[in-house]
Structure prediction request, 779 residues.
Amino acid sequence: MRVAQRHNAAVSGRADGRPMLFAHGFGCDQEMWRFVAPAFEHDHRVILFDHVGAGGSDLSAYDAERHGSLDGYAEDVLELCRELDVADAVFVGHSVSSMIGVVASIREPGRIGKLVLVGPSPRYIDDEGYVGGFTRPDIEELLGSLDSNFLGWSSAMAPVIMGNADRPELGDELTNSFCRTDPDIAARFARVTFLSDNRADLARVDVPTLVLQCSADAIAPDAVGEYVHRGIAGSTLVRMAATGHCPNLSAPDETIAAIRAFV
Amino acid sequence: MDELAESAEDLYDNAPCGYLSTTPDGTIVRVNATFLRWTGYRREELVGARRLSDLLTAGGRIYHETHYAPLLRMQGSVREIALDLVCAGGDRLPVLLNSQLKLDAGGAPQLVRTTVFEARDRKRYEEELLAARNRERVARERVEWLQRITSAIAVAADAHTMAAAIVGEIVGRVGARGAGIAVYDSASRAWQLLGAQGDLPAGELGPSGPDAGFDEGAPGRDAAAALRFAGGQGTRGRLCLAFDGARAFDEAERAFLRACADQTALGLERVQLYELQRDVSHQLQQSMVGVTLPSDPRYDVATAYHPAFEHLEVGGDWYDAFTLPGDRLAIVVGDVAGRGIVAASAMAQLRSAVRALAGAGFGPAAVLEHMDAFVEQTEAGRYATLAFAAVDLATGAVCCAAAGHLPPLVLQPGAAPEYFLGGRSTPLGVRLGGEERAEATFRLAPGGSFLLYTDGLVERRGESIDVGLERLVAAVAARDEQVPAALVDALLEHDAPHDDVCLLSFHLAQRFRPPD
Prediction:
């Protein structure tokens, strides 16, 4: 199977424009970017994809060993880049995909020319002299709840469509695929995401990097954004007015403006 | 009717579910009395002061940010999301949340309306389901693992291999720092370590080590387990485990480790019995096939014996050669059905009987007839096959009788190898309609040879015996000298035999001159 098919990749925009990859974080799929990505189609070759296990990806491509660390996800991204002949791309990663982009940029220089990290965290768990925002018991509880919440999870996976009569662009098919993840894979991805520690990778990044930090982000608090900014030499930190962890959904205009100013 | 008519305000405040209204960023702007009663917060603590996500556990906040909020924004609604609310007193309240996004005239999010249903019972139900599922999974994994250990025990040929296999499986499964199996040797009155892996404190396995039981350890003291096992044949031993730090052993795990120890005892006894039998039958067979072959300048007898790879038990193949009165030589190759000590002892009896009968002056057919009576009386060696050849050393005449055995392959000088098909009859103890045992004679020219062999040399699984017989002819034709060991090697080169192979060649010297 082709890599693009494996990742349900969608390519749009200007064929000769600088490639721009949008990578979704833990929880949902490429639809996370639906309010943001189209704004770049005029100037860029825009590539959207799902990580293996999410959205319309090929679930059979999930390999517990390969996808047992962010390195495996980064290798997926690089394979996709090679197949689509992508070089010097702008990689826009949300949440855990920020670190996937960081790892990919280090693993194969030249593929990724600029990094945009939306709500990044190199380590979620507090450590000596480091504030990650979560204690180990917090994360254990989350991982436990992913397991114990399986009935709730399944109803979240196939949500009843309501109240989107005024949002005709959200068809049935789209709605049902959004946030649809295989529960087992989602639980493992959560483990990889929230137990990973990529602090040492920050210093190895040598491409221009933009860090987008939201206000009152419960997942990646201010101190973490600061840490990433300090860790990546020459990076730009933009504090956004948007609250929460998903400015790509809650404040698409502000997000677009910040990314556009950088690229 | 007026008394029954509900006021909208009262319906909102005292509905059987909690109501929350929040701004798109989650700040609570309105909340009903039911919600406050359930959670213990005062209205002023929440309205305008807290976000919905502030009332969630840390894990719940992550779920809210990664699933709830995106779903709500994308779909305009979410339903039946299970989360825990942290109440004013710190207690957790399991709830199901349904939210609806209200958009303003311009299509931008304006307000989120959320209903909250208490879900203690549902949560308990989910937990029971999950616990049952986990119990089932753990039990299934344990059974699978025990089956793996049992099959490792079954294929192990000796106690050390078996102990190493068991220890290897256990260490990985229970996360031990080390494990070992020791048995008590009553002859030397000492403990003997059969197999160990990882780091096991010295003395742990010996008589001074912890007695049978589980020690869960404590801060500063590592957990350990020592399980005694005893077999019915007097085998006594210990399965010992050492862990890093303290740990608990639940009942299923204890039962499981006890089962491992019991399996070990059974396996050790089987291996010991097996080793004993194998030693005895190997010795028996060595005494059979290790005979001193007669020698004479007029002829040469050479042999090869090749045990099957896949069997540790000996088979019942044998060969023999001895001189007979009247300047004759007896050549015998036989094959007893079955393997192990029973076959080896039957082979010994048949071999002695053939020697006694031939030494008393009986010819080949008469030897076989007496052997029929012998196997009927003793049951040893019934269905055995046997080729008996008496060579007249004065004339080169070879008188053959084959009881169900493969035919001799004869090489006359300057001629192609040819099977001698005379003197054939049924296996020992199988006489059809009282027919007589047959014998037939061929004359071997000076420099000629003949071969006697067992079926392992020519038979291959899934192949006709004719193919094997042709292969033997080709191999023999391709060689100048019929050295049995080299011939066996050549024939088995591509094919490990599934049966023992026994081959004997008789060669008449070139300078032998028979009387005219």
